[in-house]
Every structure is written in C-alpha cells, then in structure tokens.
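#struct-pred
JK: can someone run the complex with pyridoxal-5'-phosphate? inputs below
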Amino acid sequence: MASLSPVLKQATPVVVDHAFGSWIFGTDGEQYLDFTTGIGVTSTGHCHPKVVAAAREQVGKIIHAQYTTVMHKPLLELTEKLGEVLPAGLDSVFYANSGSEAVEAAIRLARMATGRPNIVVFQGGFHGRTVAAASLTTAGTKFSAGFAPLMAGVHMSAFPHAYRYGMDEASAVAFALRELDYLLKTRTAPEDTAAFLIEPALGDGGYIPTPPAFMDGLRDRADRHGIKLIFDEVQAGVGRTGKFWGHQHSHAAPDIIITAKGIASGFPISAIAASTETMSKAWPGSQGGTYGGNAVSAAAGVATLEVIEEEGLVENARLRGNQMLAGLKEIQTRFPTIGNVRGIGLMAGIEFTAPDGTADAATAGAVQQATVEQRLLTLTCGPEGNVVRLIPALIVTEAEIATGLERFEAAV
Ligand code: PLP
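RT: done, structure tokens with the ligand placed:
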C-alpha cells in the first residue's frame, strides 16, 4: 500500500469531486469558493466550456508530437496568438512545461546571449523549485534549505518593500536602486552580469506589487550596462494584475519574458519570449524537453487567450481587483492584527502582524485554516508565512468577490 509523500502537505483538507468557474465541489458534499485557483493557474475559472472543448477536440487528434521532431498545429496557433499580446520586439517563443523550466531556459538564454555568468535577483523573489530556479529564489529558506550547493553566480539585491522598510514607496525605490548600483560596483561587475530577474509583483514572496519606478530603474541600468532584463510573469502575467502583463504598469519592457500558470487554464505549458536576435544565441539542443509545448496544453492555451479576449477578462481582473482591495482595506480597519493590505488586480495579500509589528505567521495560518471552515479557499505566502493571499479566477463576479470578502472577514 502506498500513500502520498508528506512533502505534499495540503493547505486544506479538501478533496475535489468536480469544479466549475470559481467553485470547487468537494467529496465532502461542500461547495467552496476557490480563491486559490491552483495557485493562480485556472485563469478562466475551472473547466471553462471553451477550454474543455478545445482540449477534448485536441485529444482526439494528436496528444503528443515532440516539437523538435514533428511540429503540431496548436503550438503554431498559440505562438501566433501570443504574438498579439507579447511586448513589441519579443517575436521568438520557446516552450516548456512549467514555470521553473521556463525560468531555467531564460537564464540559460541570457548567459548564452551575453557570454556573462551572473544573475541578479531581488529579495523575496520566487522563481521555482528545480535546483537552478531554487538558487534564484529568495522568498523563504524552505525553498532551498537542505540541498546545497546551489547554482553559482546568483547575487541578491534589495527589493523596494516600502511597508517592511517603514518607508514611502519613492524612498524604498531609491534605496533599492542605490543598493543595486552598489552591488554592481562591489560584487558583480556589469561586464560579468548577464541578467536582472524580477517578478512584476512578488508572488510567494508576499504578494507585493513591484513599484513601477523600480521596474523603470532596472530597465535604465540594463540598457546602460548591456544586461538582459528578464520579467518572470509566471504568476503576475496573463491578465492577473488588471493588465495583460504585470510589467505594463510600468514603462519598462523586458528583453526576455517568462509566462506559465494562467496561460492554459490549468494545462501544463510555459513559454519564454525574446527577440529573434537574442533567441538565436541559443543553439538547437541547448533548450527543450520531451514534453515541452504539449499539443493538448497548447490547444487549451489558444482557447484561454481567446476567452480572455472575448470575455474582457483583463478589465474584469482590474475591476474586481479594485473591489477586492477596497473591501480588504475596509476589513483591515476592524482588525489591528492586519498590519498591511496590498495587491494589484486579482492578487491580494493580507499581512498579519503582532502588536510590535513583527510577522505573525500563527495568526495568518489560523485565518487561512478558518477560511476553509467558511468554505473559502485561500493560501498563505511570504518569507515569514504571515501573509494570506487571495487569487480568484479572472472570471470572478462582483457577487463572488462580495461573498469572498464576507467569508474572509468571518474567518479573521
Ligand atoms: N515563477 C513564479 C513567479 C512563480 O510564481 C512560480 C510558481 O509559483 C514559478 C516561477 C515556478 O513555476 P512552476 O511551479 O510551474 O515550476
């Protein structure tokens, strides 16, 4: 007899029977409002009819044709669809299965394109769990403790976390940019630095929107020093922040962009895009994997992008996100244990703090558990585990957000 490994410690006791839209129906007969969406994956909601139909149809045509052997139509179609939303000039796309693999592909590409070894990451960033991706992750020790040595050539710089620093945003940005300039003078010279890697909003690091001025400051330094600017849009991309890409809240454009999660509503696929000039610095054989760019995932990806466009889901994310954030800020006024509420679009983080301002992970954990009793599914995050995060699907309705807020307040 086998059982699931204890590393798969569940945040909720729920076993899903079926799910639709924003709702999960458990084998316990309960109906849960899902503000976890498979950690920001089921962008068009659970089992959107158009995504289901596209996947069903594709399964009957071809499931897998390894893309360096035989190309298939869905990947060509997905590439064309992505071309409509990718930042100008990023016209060459490569596919993998997960965010971590795409992060690794982007790092390999940046090193190959510049001939430089080092990568600068920012405190609180989360980029995945493979050894290389974990080496780039500073969102908590649990992601890399116990399996050192990690990948060499990674340097961490400050993230402009205004609330944590007790600063206003402009001061936090100025401080973090000064720290970066200092790092480039003392620890990794520009001529040794291949890339800056950053999320447009920290995900596992605590749901903290990256200030646009910081993104702009990174672009400026990347241009000055010939460093590749990589935006990890795995969690913040595909409409989640109320713009198609999280970085579009700033003026900065990436040299390399990474997307996964919401791109196919739950089917595993990830992509990186860069200019053809940059992408051609990687040679055939240096990137790829057996399952990358799976045909069924790609078909689901095409359907997902169509649904997002047809149903105006980017705008819905903005509107419902504003509603959620306003509601949470109001709830905050009634609970001194909530130290900070922040978010962007349908990414909201509620940070629990003790009276002396230190992180209160126990309360965040208890609240997350209590939301399940209220039939609302939530997750925690943050390096200290004291943030409850809400990640509704992009199709979430005004009434569902209102219900979610009521249930969340009852849990607190
Ligand atoms: N990058 C970011 C910003 C993420 O949020 C995640 C996953 O949560 C990853 C990378 C890794 O993606 P995956 O879990 O698909 O490997």
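RT: quick notes.
DSSP finds 13 helices and 17 strands in the chain.
The chain has two domains: 6-34+314-411, 52-310.
JK: thanks, will look after standup
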